């Protein structure tokens, strides 16, 4: 990727570099423990080291990378307790969001969710694409709730969860299960069923957490 040729006229290179790194994390190409260097990223993106340095500082403030003496920057590794806390916070916030969403969502916004759901159904064999569509689905839900503070809080959690690596949707059983949960959630939103939407979102995120913890436990077993 060459940021100089691809960048927006109005967007600084540091912002594009930041978005690029977050995107790599969300795809599972950059996970906890991996090192990131100014020189390597500058060469990869075709820019100077200054905007890369600014992007890394921003990621450090966000808690996505850490600076280690003599080793430079590394993607933060999350502990088991931190992961549980993140999912706990995500469940509380997104369950509240869908309750609000059930009151405020428009017909156009429901149609957008249905389109994303159809695209996800066609991407079960492509976990990376499905994960991107899933992120878009949850972002569309937050947008429909029309609460900027809920949106900012949830997006911060989504970014942090991205550093865990492979999406839980790489598990085919989970991918199929997720589609059913999304479908049921859309039906509740159509009916303005706040309690039903809240219950389904709780189940949806609880199932995602279950698969995530299973992935982590399996990785620990493989590394031991």
Quaternary structure state of the chains depicted: single chain
Query: Which fold does the CATH topology of the largest domain refer to?
Result: Four Helix Bundle (Hemerythrin (Met), subunit A)
What is the 3D form? globular
CATH superfamily of the largest domain: GntR ligand-binding domain-like
Structural class: mainly alpha
Biggest β-sheet: strands ordered side by side in the sheet:
1-3-2
CATH level-1 class of the largest domain: Mainly Alpha
Number of helices: 10
Give the CATH architecture of the largest domain: Up-down Bundle
Query: What is the radius of gyration computed over CA atoms, rounded to a whole number of angstroms?
Result: 18 Å
Kindly give the count of domains.
2
Q: Report the portion of residues in β strands.
A: under 5%
Tally of extended strands? 3
Fraction of residues in helices?
A: over 70%
N-end to C-end Cα span: 37 Å
What's the rounded overall pLDDT mean? 90
Biggest sheet, in brief?
3 strands, antiparallel
Q: What sequence of helices (H) and strands (E) makes up the elements?
A: HHEHHEEHHHHHH
Task: Describe the 3D structure.
It is a single chain. The chain has 224 residues and is mostly helical. It folds into two domains: 73 residues, Winged helix-like DNA-binding domain superfamily/Winged helix DNA-binding domain (Arc Repressor Mutant, subunit A, Orthogonal Bundle), CATH 1.10.10.10; 144 residues, GntR ligand-binding domain-like (Four Helix Bundle (Hemerythrin (Met), subunit A), Up-down Bundle), CATH 1.20.120.530. It is built from ten helices and three strands; from the N terminus they run ααβααββαααααα. Strands 1-3-2 form a three-stranded antiparallel beta sheet. A hairpin with a 3-residue loop joins strand 2 and strand 3. Helix 6 runs antiparallel to helix 7. The radius of gyration is 18 Å and the shape is globular. The relative contact order is 0.12. The model has no long low-confidence stretch (mean pLDDT 90).
């Amino acid at each position: 990727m060459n940021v100089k040729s691809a960048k927006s006229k109005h967007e600084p290179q540091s912002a594009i570099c930041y978005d690029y790194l977050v995107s790599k994390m969300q795809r599972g190409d950059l996970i906890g423990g991996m090192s990131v260097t100014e020189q390597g990223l500058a060469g990869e993106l075709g820019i100077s080291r200054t905007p890369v340095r600014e992007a890394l500082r921003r990621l450090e403030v966000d808690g996505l990378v850490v600076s280690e003496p003599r080793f430079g920057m590394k993607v933060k590794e999350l502990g088991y307790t931190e992961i549980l806390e993140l999912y706990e916070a995500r469940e509380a916030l997104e369950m509240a969001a869908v309750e609000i969403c059930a009151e405020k969502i428009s017909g156009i916004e429901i149609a957008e969710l249905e389109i994303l759901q159809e695209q996800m159904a066609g991407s079960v064999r492509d976990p990376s694409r499905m994960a991107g569509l899933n992120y878009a689905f949850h972002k569309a839900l937050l947008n429909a709730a029309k609460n900027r503070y809920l949106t900012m809080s949830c997006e911060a959690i989504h970014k942090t969860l991205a550093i865990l690596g492979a999406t839980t949707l790489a598990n085919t059983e989970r991918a199929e299960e997720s589609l059913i949960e999304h479908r049921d959630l859309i039906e509740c939103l159509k009916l303005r069923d706040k309690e039903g939407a809240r219950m389904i979102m709780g189940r949806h995120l609880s199932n995602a957490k279950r698969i995530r913890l299973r992935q982590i436990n399996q990785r620990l077993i493989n590394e031991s």
